[in-house]
Write the structure tokens for this entry.
Amino acid sequence: MPGQPLNDEPSRKIQDSHRADDGGFPQPSYQVLPPTRYSTNSLNAILSTKTREGAWIVPASLSATSVMGTIKLDLCEAVFESLDFTIDLNGFLGDVKIWVPEGTLVIDETRAFASEVKLKKLSPPRPGGLRITLRGDLILGTVIVYGSDHISWRRRRKRRN
């Protein structure tokens, strides 16, 4: 037929040039991943650090033992099985750091010997919202619960720059 190329080579070159215009960058994937479910309801940090953060499923109760180690629990993006959540803490010369979402009520029922439990910048609790109860024994340890209004030194440093 007149007016059409005998082979489709020129049209392939045009298509290839259009593909090259995207810079070769992969297309973003907007797949939503399900939260992580851990096989155990306990965290043990003995001369080490254990961290749970991001989207993870939090059981109704969690056991955390820190012996000369650090446990970090970020609950801000977590999915809770129950709005009444209990953390059974056992610590000897260890640290436990917990980040809670806005509107969380934190109840401290720990027994402490030469230890410290700090609640930093918690927002007012929401009626019917998440309730976290801290229980257990602490000896020469520290538990710090950071609320949503807390600004860490790293975030402060980023704001300055």
User: Anything to note?
Assistant: The radius of gyration is 25 Å.
